[in-house]
Design brief:
Largest sheet: 2 strands, antiparallel
Number of helices: 4
Strand order of the largest sheet: 1-2
Distance between the termini: 42 Å
Protein backbone atom coordinates (compact mmCIF):
# COMPACT_ATOMS: atom_id res chain seq x y z
CA UNK A 1 0.00 0.00 0.00
CA UNK A 2 1.36 3.45 -0.92
CA UNK A 3 1.32 6.53 1.33
CA UNK A 4 -1.29 8.16 -0.87
CA UNK A 5 -3.63 5.19 -0.69
CA UNK A 6 -3.20 5.01 3.09
CA UNK A 7 -3.95 8.71 3.58
CA UNK A 8 -7.01 8.65 1.35
CA UNK A 9 -8.78 5.47 2.47
CA UNK A 10 -12.50 5.51 1.97
CA UNK A 11 -14.77 5.73 4.98
CA UNK A 12 -17.85 3.58 5.38
CA UNK A 13 -20.00 6.11 3.48
CA UNK A 14 -17.53 6.27 0.58
CA UNK A 15 -16.06 9.72 1.38
CA UNK A 16 -12.28 10.04 1.58
CA UNK A 17 -10.89 9.56 5.08
CA UNK A 18 -7.75 11.64 5.36
CA UNK A 19 -5.67 10.19 8.10
CA UNK A 20 -2.85 12.72 8.25
CA UNK A 21 -1.00 13.98 11.30
CA UNK A 22 -1.16 17.76 10.91
CA UNK A 23 0.69 18.28 14.20
CA UNK A 24 3.93 17.43 12.39
CA UNK A 25 3.34 20.27 9.95
CA UNK A 26 2.21 22.72 12.62
CA UNK A 27 5.22 21.96 14.84
CA UNK A 28 7.53 23.20 12.10
CA UNK A 29 5.57 26.41 11.61
CA UNK A 30 6.83 29.32 13.70
CA UNK A 31 4.11 31.54 15.09
CA UNK A 32 5.15 35.11 15.88
CA UNK A 33 5.22 36.02 19.54
CA UNK A 34 2.56 38.54 20.44
CA UNK A 35 3.04 41.27 23.03
CA UNK A 36 -0.43 41.15 24.51
CA UNK A 37 0.08 44.31 26.60
CA UNK A 38 1.10 46.29 23.53
CA UNK A 39 -1.84 44.87 21.58
CA UNK A 40 -4.27 45.83 24.35
CA UNK A 41 -2.73 49.31 24.58
CA UNK A 42 -3.08 49.72 20.82
CA UNK A 43 -6.72 48.65 20.86
CA UNK A 44 -7.40 50.97 23.81
CA UNK A 45 -6.03 53.89 21.78
CA UNK A 46 -8.25 52.87 18.88
CA UNK A 47 -11.36 52.78 21.07
CA UNK A 48 -10.43 56.19 22.51
CA UNK A 49 -9.97 57.61 19.00
CA UNK A 50 -13.34 56.30 17.86
CA UNK A 51 -14.97 57.70 21.02
CA UNK A 52 -13.33 61.05 20.38
CA UNK A 53 -14.52 61.03 16.76
CA UNK A 54 -18.04 60.21 17.94
CA UNK A 55 -17.93 63.07 20.47
CA UNK A 56 -16.78 65.43 17.72
CA UNK A 57 -19.60 64.27 15.44
CA UNK A 58 -22.23 64.65 18.17
CA UNK A 59 -20.94 68.10 19.17
CA UNK A 60 -20.98 69.11 15.51
CA UNK A 61 -24.54 67.86 15.09
CA UNK A 62 -25.62 69.75 18.21
CA UNK A 63 -24.01 72.94 16.91
CA UNK A 64 -25.76 72.50 13.56
CA UNK A 65 -29.15 71.98 15.23
CA UNK A 66 -28.61 75.01 17.46
CA UNK A 67 -27.62 77.20 14.51
CA UNK A 68 -30.52 75.90 12.44
CA UNK A 69 -32.95 76.80 15.22
CA UNK A 70 -31.43 80.30 15.42
CA UNK A 71 -31.82 80.71 11.65
CA UNK A 72 -35.44 79.56 11.72
CA UNK A 73 -36.25 81.89 14.62
CA UNK A 74 -34.58 84.81 12.84
CA UNK A 75 -36.38 84.06 9.57
CA UNK A 76 -39.76 83.90 11.34
CA UNK A 77 -39.16 87.29 12.97
CA UNK A 78 -38.01 88.80 9.66
CA UNK A 79 -41.02 87.40 7.81
CA UNK A 80 -43.40 88.75 10.44
CA UNK A 81 -41.80 92.18 10.18
CA UNK A 82 -41.92 92.02 6.37
CA UNK A 83 -45.64 91.14 6.40
CA UNK A 84 -46.37 94.10 8.67
CA UNK A 85 -44.37 96.37 6.37
CA UNK A 86 -46.15 95.06 3.27
CA UNK A 87 -49.53 95.56 4.90
CA UNK A 88 -48.72 99.22 5.47
CA UNK A 89 -47.98 99.88 1.76
CA UNK A 90 -51.11 100.94 -0.10
CA UNK A 91 -49.96 101.30 -3.72
CA UNK A 92 -49.85 97.95 -5.58
CA UNK A 93 -46.71 98.87 -7.56
CA UNK A 94 -44.83 99.80 -4.39
CA UNK A 95 -46.09 96.64 -2.67
CA UNK A 96 -44.93 94.46 -5.59
CA UNK A 97 -41.52 96.17 -5.63
CA UNK A 98 -41.19 95.65 -1.87
CA UNK A 99 -42.20 91.98 -2.23
CA UNK A 100 -39.52 91.48 -4.87
CA UNK A 101 -36.94 93.14 -2.61
CA UNK A 102 -38.00 90.98 0.37
CA UNK A 103 -37.91 87.81 -1.74
CA UNK A 104 -34.44 88.63 -3.01
CA UNK A 105 -32.98 89.41 0.41
CA UNK A 106 -34.70 86.38 1.97
CA UNK A 107 -33.31 84.11 -0.73
CA UNK A 108 -29.79 85.53 -0.31
CA UNK A 109 -29.93 85.00 3.47
CA UNK A 110 -31.28 81.47 3.01
CA UNK A 111 -28.42 80.59 0.65
CA UNK A 112 -25.87 82.12 3.03
CA UNK A 113 -27.38 80.24 5.99
CA UNK A 114 -27.41 76.96 4.07
CA UNK A 115 -23.76 77.50 3.14
CA UNK A 116 -22.87 78.25 6.76
CA UNK A 117 -24.62 75.13 8.02
CA UNK A 118 -23.06 73.05 5.24
CA UNK A 119 -19.63 74.36 6.23
CA UNK A 120 -20.32 73.49 9.87
CA UNK A 121 -21.24 69.93 8.89
CA UNK A 122 -18.19 69.57 6.63
CA UNK A 123 -15.87 70.86 9.37
CA UNK A 124 -17.31 68.48 11.96
CA UNK A 125 -17.07 65.51 9.59
CA UNK A 126 -13.49 66.41 8.62
CA UNK A 127 -12.44 66.61 12.29
CA UNK A 128 -14.05 63.27 13.12
CA UNK A 129 -12.56 61.59 10.04
CA UNK A 130 -9.15 63.07 10.76
CA UNK A 131 -9.17 61.58 14.26
CA UNK A 132 -10.05 58.11 12.99
CA UNK A 133 -7.67 58.34 10.02
CA UNK A 134 -4.76 59.42 12.23
CA UNK A 135 -5.41 56.53 14.62
CA UNK A 136 -5.68 54.04 11.75
CA UNK A 137 -2.28 55.08 10.42
CA UNK A 138 -0.77 54.92 13.92
CA UNK A 139 -2.22 51.44 14.42
CA UNK A 140 -0.59 50.25 11.20
CA UNK A 141 2.77 51.53 12.46
CA UNK A 142 2.17 49.86 15.82
CA UNK A 143 1.25 46.56 14.15
CA UNK A 144 4.40 46.65 12.02
CA UNK A 145 6.50 47.39 15.11
CA UNK A 146 4.88 44.52 17.02
CA UNK A 147 5.53 42.11 14.17
CA UNK A 148 9.16 43.21 13.87
CA UNK A 149 9.59 42.88 17.62
CA UNK A 150 7.98 39.43 17.68
CA UNK A 151 10.38 37.91 15.17
Amino acid sequence: MTAASTAAKKSANGAPNFNMDFSKYIADFKFPKVDVDALVASQTKTVEAVSSANRTAVEGAQAVVKRHNEVVQSMMTEMSDAMKELASIEKPQERAAKQAQICKSTYERAVANAQEIGDMIAKSNAEAFSTVNKRFLESLDEAAALLRKGN
